[in-house]
Amino acid sequence: VANFSARGASACRGEGPGRRRTRRRHKKRRKWERRRGERERECSSIPEQESCPPAPIQAQNLKPVNYEYKEGHEYTVCSHIQNGAFGEVYCVKDNSTGFQCAAKRIPLDRFRSEEVSSWSALNSSRIVQLYGAVREDAFVTLFMELKKGGSLAQLIRESGRLPQDRALFYQEQVLEALEHLHSRRVLHRDVKADNVLLSQDGEKAFLCDFGHSEKLGLNGKSQVPPTGAGLQGTETHMAPEVVLGEGCSSQADVWSSCCMMLHMLNGCHPWTRYYTHPLCLKIANEPPPIKEIPATCNPCTADVIKMGLEKDPIKRALAAELRAKVKEALKQVGGLRSPLKGPYQEPA
Ligand SMILES: CN1C=C[C@@](O)(C#Cc2ccnc(-n3nc(C(N)=O)c4cc(F)ccc43)c2)C1=O
């Protein structure tokens, strides 16, 4: 179903439309919403590539035809960006507008509706925009804005490891995204450098990949059994309460973000220099990996990681608290001064 959200449209709208066109569009939107109400009563099962019409203000740059938006017909794959346990990510181009975006293609039996429903609860400039979702044969394809700076994980691989100021710079933006998620009771569950995307100039970071996410209960606790299929994130970044199968909260994302901090500073995931997989027993029984904080780190940066790697989620800093500490640490180190692509630094 090609259902390009209004927000998606605003995210990729071309030049601002004239007022007359805006009024026409609002009239169309009211009509579409009336019709949508009627349809929602009709369409119980959504047959492939049919049913719900595109959103009221269809994305200006993604043009479904008769509700179809198929690879090789309405859009073309330009290049392969990344593969993962979830499926594949491509750069695609709309055949009628030439607009480029990213597309994540997920086998239907691995797709979780939370990937879209969690995103839909959010509205932050720190989160990658979703343009729409299409079911095509045995796949679901999620279209999103293309981030030409690639992923933070790619930057770490290319750099060896990141300078402290740049690690803090990205950590602060990821914690801003987590603050937003947690304020809306969304748990990401797979915070790591692979799921942080960068603008081309490396100045902006965006959280992506809600494939493991879930909506927390009113008590702020996870509502799904800890061994829920597809809910496993990345073992090296898992919080102790997650590996122990205890009801987790948004604090699990804070732990993961500090594992990502160690990844940025050392050029390798935590635990992996000292232990082999499976790591879950080590994560549960060993002290937090604060011995992996580089000795060259500013004491304030070390405090950030210690506050986020508290094994007790109740004692662990909240995303907002940790973000304030990161800002202080960034100030202490003189702000962001290192170049995006500096000299290669051997991983620790
Ligand atoms: C809004 N939305 C929709 C689907 C979503 O859950 C995802 C994802 C995902 C997973 C892995 N990788 C990427 N990924 N996307 C891009 C891009 N948009 O440019 C990208 C670019 C890379 F270089 C590497 C991986 C990338 C995106 C989600 O969050």
Mean pLDDT: 86
Roughly what fraction of the amino acids lie in strands?
5-15%
Number of strands: 9
Number of helices, where a helix is a run of at least 4 consecutive DSSP H or I residues: 10
N/C terminus separation: 47 Å
- Runs with pLDDT <50, length 5+? 5-18, 35-58
What is the strand arrangement across the widest sheet? 1-2-3-5-4
Order of helices and strands: HHEEEHEEHHEEEEHHHHH
What is the CA-atom radius of gyration, in angstroms?
21 Å
Protein structure class: alpha+beta
Helix content: 25-40%
The largest sheet, given as strand count, sense and whether it forms a barrel, is: 5 strands, antiparallel
Bound molecules: the ligand CN1C=C[C@@](O)(C#Cc2ccnc(-n3nc(C(N)=O)c4cc(F)ccc43)c2)C1=O
So what's the overall shape? globular
Which short descriptors sum up this protein?
348 residues, alpha+beta, two-stranded antiparallel sheet, 10 helices, 9 strands, binds the ligand CN1C=C[C@@](O)(C#Cc2ccnc(-n3nc(C(N)=O)c4cc(F)ccc43)c2)C1=O
